[in-house]
Design brief:
Shape of chain A: globular
Largest sheet of chain B: 7 strands, mixed
CATH class of chain A: Alpha Beta
Structural class of chain A: alpha/beta
Number of helices of chain A: 14
CATH class of the largest domain in chain B: Alpha Beta
Order of helices and strands of chain A: HHHHEHHEHEHEEEHEHEHHHH
Helix content of chain A: 40-55%
Helix content of chain B: 25-40%
CATH topology of the largest domain in chain B: Rossmann fold
Order of helices and strands of chain B: EHEHEHEHHEHEHEEEEHEEHEHEHH
Oligomer: heterodimer
CATH superfamily of the largest domain in chain B: Thiamin diphosphate (ThDP)-binding fold, Pyr/PP domains
Distance between the termini of chain A: 53 Å
Number of strands of chain A: 8
Strand order of the largest sheet of chain A: 2-1-3-4-8-7
Number of domains of chain A: 1
Radius of gyration of chain A: 21 Å
CATH superfamily of chain A: Thiamin diphosphate (ThDP)-binding fold, Pyr/PP domains
Largest sheet of chain A: 6 strands, parallel
């Protein structure tokens, strides 16, 4: 693990250079191509994810949210940076730690909070919960909770893109723990074999739930697993927002141009436990603190201030605005109706219920 | 009307399905090899490799890609050569294809048809199983197992028109069975059982290949004056018991014949439904005829004792009717 952390650190330094030095960096290039407002927008997205999830934790403690709650806190730069490269015709699949990707893809947080509250106004009508956010109108196909298998579904949507020539690209997120199961290898083989437009983004947060990387994988440089398929791959610093944006952007263009899929390994770290109930016996407080001190959100905020992109006062104002939005999402969720009992009948299970019912209506 | 084999009827159905540009077929050895059971023979040459997709031997991948493509608007036909191999895709089928519609609040569905085969002929333990009950157990799936060429074609058409995932179960020992098939385009709806033979003394409730063996048994018994009514369920989920119950109310005797293991198998559900809704009409305990509950042996003398035979069906019917 020390090795991974060391290599992550080395890449991070790329963003340390200042604009005045005239050295071309992801930052100077992003500023030139996107402008200051867009750089501030990325801050807003990361902070919205952070504050939304902090509120989720609070609501979980107050039993407003049930089930599992897997927080993305600490990994925001990967999701925001990667998804910032996507166009409306592109697609996103993700895993059960899906809040960050949903927000980065532009899903309104009101239906997200309502989903967590198990309400009818939730993005999945209260049927999915934390692990199953989705919004088909944004080609956000959802969070999937069986580790690794959604990579194959992502391949399938990429096959549709290719067969119907939509020019779309599919981005699929998963963790380091997902790269040991068979479905990962099937997905990589199919994608490379058929040159499918998929960007596989492995968020390597160094733990498969609570099992350290070197305990669960024979190869700890996950990006090298693509070599078995002659697939393009890269390892990047997932905590450097603009670096993620730029390098994943190259992967997206590679996939879009018909050259085939790319495996991106983004080195990152989750600050919270695997889920809200994790006692975290597998790592020390010192380790966590060390990573927290390099918080990608704080680092990005500092960059915007130091490079005079945006004064602290304006960022503070954004924070205040986000707090109000998050509070409003709680109010929206609180005031929303619960789903109806039709979900307990065939009408809730099938797109086309048949005359013969599979669920005994007398039991409903 | 034309007399066609099950294989020919399915070929017609698949050719008709391919008229829709969204339809493609993905599976093992469906193209270059020429199709294991001959159903898609010639399809690669006619439709090309974009739509007839020879897949790696990776069943989760076949179903996974088909599920994803279906979500995004395609109409895939996923072929799993033998149902035994479908176990490798159960995660995709059960955790994803069957769940996606309801789990994401009904916002999108999985219009997928998975074709697969039951069957046996000295193929030993891992190539002779039936998982009908395991598919039919899953809310979110629709599971069909037609018996006749006409139903194969008409129900395949229904499966392709359905926006939900449909498991379409064929049988390796049925491809050569012949029957009348209507010309052109027609639908046999999912979830509707049918009377395969009329009778008044006893009701056999069955589906798939066992319909044919049950009809043979009925023919033999007719010579002894026993008139057996045979009900072909055709669909396992949703299970339409209306025809079977109507028949049972008339005959007051029933035998359930299914080509799978008895414990927790499809016959358990069918017999329970008869007991639950037909208890007042019951004149004798219901008998079941199924695979004997062992992994299938290779040796022919043993295999033939495991599988269902016409003789075993006849014996069960006579037992219920207390005839010797």
């Amino acid at each position: 693990m020390q090795k991974q952390r060391g290599s992550t650190k080395a890449v991070t330094s790329a963003t340390q250079s200042v604009r005045s030095s005239m050295t071309s960096t992801p930052f100077t290039r992003a500023l030139e191509h996107l402008g200051a407002d867009q750089l501030v927008e990325y801050y807003r997205q990361m902070m919205l994810i952070r504050r939304f999830e902090e509120k989720c934790q609070e609501m979980y403690t107050r039993s407003k949210i049930g089930g599992f709650l897997h927080l993305y806190v600490g990994e925001e730069a990967t999701g925001v940076g990667a998804i910032s490269n996507l166009q409306p015709q592109d697609h996103v699949f993700t895993h059960y730690r899906d809040h960050g990707h949903a927000i980065a893809r532009g899903l309104d947080i009101n239906p997200l909070m309502a989903e967590l509250f198990g309400k009818d106004t939730g993005c999945s009508r209260g049927m999915g919960g934390s692990m199953h956010f989705a919004d088909v109108t944004k080609n956000f196909w959802g969070g999937y909770a069986i580790v690794g298998s959604h990579l194959l579904l992502a391949d399938g949507v990429a096959l549709q893109c290719k067969m119907q020539k939509t020019n779309g690209v599919v981005m699929v997120f998963f963790g380091d723990g997902a790269t040991n199961g068979g479905e990962f290898y099937e997905a990589l083989n199919f994608a490379q074999l058929w040159k499918l437009p998929v960007v596989f983004v492995c968020e390597n947060n160094l733990f498969a739930m609570g099992t350290p990387l070197e305990v669960h994988s024979s190869v700890t440089e996950i990006y090298r697993k693509a070599n078995a398929f002659d697939m393009k791959s890269m390892r990047i610093d997932g905590n450097d927002l603009l670096g993620v944006r730029e390098q994943v952007g190259e992967a997206v263009e590679h996939a879009r141009s018909g050259k085939g899929p790319v495996l991106v390994e983004a080195m990152t770290y989750r600050f919270r436990g695997h889920s809200a109930q994790d006692t975290q016996k597998y790592r020390t407080k010192e380790d966590v603190e060390k990573h927290r001190s390099a918080d990608p959100l704080e680092a990005y905020r500092k960059l915007l201030i130091d490079e005079e992109i945006c004064p602290a006062s304006r960022l503070d104002a954004i924070d205040v605005q986000i707090d109000a939005e998050v509070d409003a999402s709680v109010e929206f969720a609180d005031n929303s109706p619960v789903p109806g009992n039709e979900w307990l009948t065939d009408a809730g299970i099938y797109a086309a219920p048949l005359e013969t019912q599979t669920v005994d209506p007398t039991l409903v | 009307m034309a007399i066609l084999t099950v294989r020919e009827a399915l070929q017609q159905a698949l050719h008709e399905a391919m008229q829709d540009e969204r339809v493609f077929i993905i599976g093992e050895d469906i193209g270059h090899y020429g199709s294991t059971y001959g159903v898609t023979a010639g399809f690669l040459e006619k439709y090309g490799p974009e739509r007839i997709r020879d897949a790696p031997i990776a069943e989760a991948g076949i179903l996974g890609l088909a599920t994803g493509a279906a979500m995004a608007g395609m109409r895939p036909i996923a072929e799993i050569m033998s149902v035994n191999f479908s176990l490798l895709a159960f995660d995709i089928i059960i955790n994803h294809a069957a769940k996606i519609y309801s789990m994401f609040g009904g916002k999108f569905s999985v219009p997928l048809v998975m074709r697969t085969t039951n069957g046996w002929t000295q193929l030993s333990a891992t190539h002779s199983q039936s998982f009908d009950a395991m598919f039919a157990y899953i809310p979110g799936l629709k599971v069909v197992a037609p018996a006749t060429p006409a139903d194969m074609k008409g129900m395949f058409r229904a499966a392709m028109a359905d926006p939900d995932p449909v498991i379409f179960i064929e049988h390796t020992l049925m491809y050569g069975i012949k029957g009348e098939v209507p010309d052109g385009d027609y639908i046999v709806p999912i979830g509707k059982s049918v009377l395969a033979r009329e009778g008044r003394h006893l009701t056999v409730v069955t589906y798939s290949r066992m319909v044919h063996l049950s009809l043979q048994a009925a023919e033999l018994l007719a010579q002894e004056g026993i008139e057996v009514e045979v009900v072909d369920l055709r669909t396992l989920r949703p299970l339409d018991m209306s025809v079977a119950l109507e028949s049972f109310k008339k005959t007051n005797h029933a035998v359930v014949v299914t080509e799978d293991w008895q414990s927790y198998g499809t016959s358990a559900e069918i017999a329970t439904r008869l007991y639950e809704a037909g208890f007042d009409y019951l004149d004798a305990p219901i008998q079941r005829v199924n695979f004997r509950e062992v992994p299938m042996p290779y040796a022919k003398n043993l295999e033939l004792q495991v599988v269902v035979t016409t003789e075993r069906i006849v014996a069960a019917i006579k037992k219920v009717l207390n005839r010797s």
